[in-house]
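DM from R.C. (forwarded with permission)

"hey, sorry to bug you on a friday — could you get me a structure for this? deadline for the figure draft is monday and I only need the backbone to look sensible"
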Amino acid sequence: MTKKKDWLVVGEITSPHGINGKLRVKSFSDFEERFTKPGLRWLQKDKEEPIKFELISGYKKPGRDIFIVTFKGVNYRDQAEKLIKQKILVKNTDLPKLKDGEFHINQLLKLKVKLNCNNEMKTIGEVCDLVNDNNNLLVIYLYQTNKNILIPFVKEIVPIICEEKNYIVIDPPKGLLDL
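My reply, with the result:
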């Protein structure tokens, strides 16, 4: 059985598109090639084992995070309808190259969160997720309150990311941690 950490969820099939087996996909990825570049992808229904599919082609709907894709062997609308709500996965080792200062979510998960309190670094929590609707927000679990908070993932608030030593330093505006 494969483990959740072996995979990255890059999108979800939302509906068929037309009658020839094409699918509408909502993207969860910053990398368009996940839906446009032919190659292997995996589809997963609920918590079932992922199933290998070959992406033949795809294109982005202008102005939206929606792609229209074609998978090999999915040629009719009724076949496409059976794939609605399935997640599109890639192996977590299939990571596009990033520019300096860019990170993949799996590089940030479980990093300890430190805060400068009176010139002393104090560990206050850990990164547990990233929310990426219109803005990148780190979900941080705070040890003291046992709650999750959202922190904008911007250089001004997260000035230091030290992946080698497993931590980030945050400099939140006054009151952000009290929400």
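R.C.: lifesaver. The longest helix spans residues 77-81.
me: no worries. The mean pLDDT is 86.
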